[in-house]
Amino acid sequence: MAAHLDDMFSFCVDPDKVAGCVEVRFIDNIKGKGLFAKRSFRKGDTIFIERPLVSAQFLWNSLYKYRACEYCLRALETAEENARRLSGVPGLSLPHPELCCVRPELHQCCPQCQVMYCSSECRQAAADQYHRVLCLGASQEDPDHPVNKLKDAWRSMHYPPETSSIMLMARMVAAVKQAKDKEHWQKLFSRFCSRAANEEEEMAHKLLGEQFKGQLALLHNLFKAALYDDDLSRWFVPAGFLSLFALVGTNGQGIGTSSLSQWVHACDALQLPAQQREQLDSFIDQLYKDIEKGRVLSLLCSNHSCVPNAEVSFPNNNFLLQLSTLSDISPGEEICISYLDCCQRERSRHSRHKILRENYLFVCSCIKCVSQTDELDVTSEEEEDDEGEAEGETEGDEAEDEMTDV
Question: What percent of the chain lies above the pLDDT cut of 70?
Fold first, then answer.
């Protein structure tokens, strides 16, 4: 979950520099606040690099044995291990193994519960922020532990492709419990909880399905049993829990981390003779065909536009988010990303609004949508066909990064 824009600069690399480049302004009661440029940016510039307030791996990913750092979400399995697991070919060998960025010799585990980290720095950072509260010790694999019951219940309600995780809420509570300045951290999180009750219920419905009210009550009870704290009692009453639930559903940013994708990018940069290049490209193409795919939409706290002037990426294969420009940006211009992928942005205005309303609970009023106001509010047959094909399509897609949630 990315920090609220008023406070996010303290979570950025070089926050003083970022504060001199961008600012937060109130736009209106519908859009709320937005991020605006204070100086000119050229196409391709990095606006800022930010770490999240809290992050957590999707629970089904964890169950499927995708190994990631418990703190920064960096992949722990090597590119070859990643390829073997995804392709189902246990004896698969990758060429150029030296291009793999994973360093197993640096990995460390929590001595109590054995969860893994990519480095001693991440292990210490997790312990300092939330892990002392959430460490299950010898009960890590105990299905009757309250935290594990909460995880199992979430998996039984929210199937892949996942779009959020109940453990984001758990880490929020744990972070406040461990914080020296508890009031500051409560304010950071509480500022997200500002949606109307009907919108919060709509997001719960979106995440859990038709039986969401009963499921929400079960999650609420399990959440209290696992994590209740008197100082945070307002988060444990039904209304407060619903606000937290809607918070993680609408403010999360999916993170793609994959040692295999990093290896592929490194292979692409190799200077090879034509025949070797052709052989390597053919190997990678076949590998992609052997791997099952999945796709998850994600949301950043920056405002959306169907004609974005910035985009989010994760170039370091961990939770560090990089916001970069897609076009020149002038001082005073709002910096917007798109919550839609490039194909969705080419759909009709009605189709775009349908996706945004269902997943993010707002109606877009960007320049593109305003210019298409006179379009009929219907979804074309071609788009309906595309949606149907996309739901069942697996072959021919490129392998996606493993997704985690922040």
Answer: 78
